[in-house]
Specification:
The protein is of the alpha/beta class. It contains 14 helices and twelve strands. The protein has two domains: about 160 residues, Rossmann fold, CATH 3.40.50; about 180 residues, Rossmann fold (3-Layer(aba) Sandwich), CATH 3.40.50.
Amino acid sequence: MMMNNLPDTPDLRILLIKLRHHGDMLLTTPVIDSLRQQWPAAQIDVLLYEETRDMLAAHPATGTIYGIDRKWKQLGTLKHLQKEWQLLRAVRTQHYHLVINLADQWHSALVTRFTGAPVRLGFAFNKRKSAFWRFCHTDLVSVENHSTLHTVEQNLSILTPLPVALKPAVTMAYTTSDWHSAREKLTQKDVGDRFIVVQPTSRWFFKCWDEGKMAQTISALQAEGHTVVLTAGPDKKELEMIDRILASSPATGVVSLAGQLTLRQLAALIDHASLFIGVDSVPMHMAAALHTPCIALFGPSKLTFWSPWQVNGEVIWAGDYGPLPDPDAIDTHTNARYLDVIPVDAVILAARRYL
């Protein structure tokens, strides 16, 4: 039934919807690439949260990117509704043939329905067993086996009803100017062509390793002749963490670009690094996507869902060195550092294997 509603035309108009965090957006790229492989002439547009635009803005297969800005709520009810209405009208005028809703919010279902597309795919989420959710989609794809699948595989499973061969590789795209900007910053810090990128921070501190242990690891690598470039987001707490690590690291051969790079510039930096060391965060997923040798430090995150996909490297899991709480039971604002059981030697030895 569904395929009968999809026109037999090479230039399909497709809208992909995903309203989540930066890392989630990066892990949708196999869906985009699979669609592009099946329909090379298709228009593939994306609806996302505005702050995650950078993750897909340079992707060669994406067309128009529509952003829902969460700051709209600060404009007052009337202005907020105007912005939402403008968005709905903009997507409706595209007359999409196919809408793929990877999101689980009612907001995404409403947009999906409003497009008027003849084929509207969504997931049959357990928490969305309602007539309205079904009404918004023409077809719902089962999530029964999602608990055993990586996030990439979960996303790709939405394509099951379509005649699409899967391309499971994650793609992190950036522009030449992104690399030029990053390269310029490296030159200002007297960093040459060979360097290691270390991203010790996450927006959730329970995912971070002890600053002293990170400094010891950096010191050991610097002593072996490697230049280390520290990166982090612009958040004040992340920058303070970088300062603590720098205070215990060698004065030479260790530089910081923390808070100074856009996400795409960071991707370019990681792409040109000889090694990436980091915690469970967006840059770790970027490193895996870019095939940069990667040492990923993990604590009580769901490894099945979030381990670096198709990584050239290895995951060091705190659970191998001590007990960890259930990921679902964690207060994300806790000050606990579950990764601290990971010994310094384990990280240094892993790094040497890839340098």
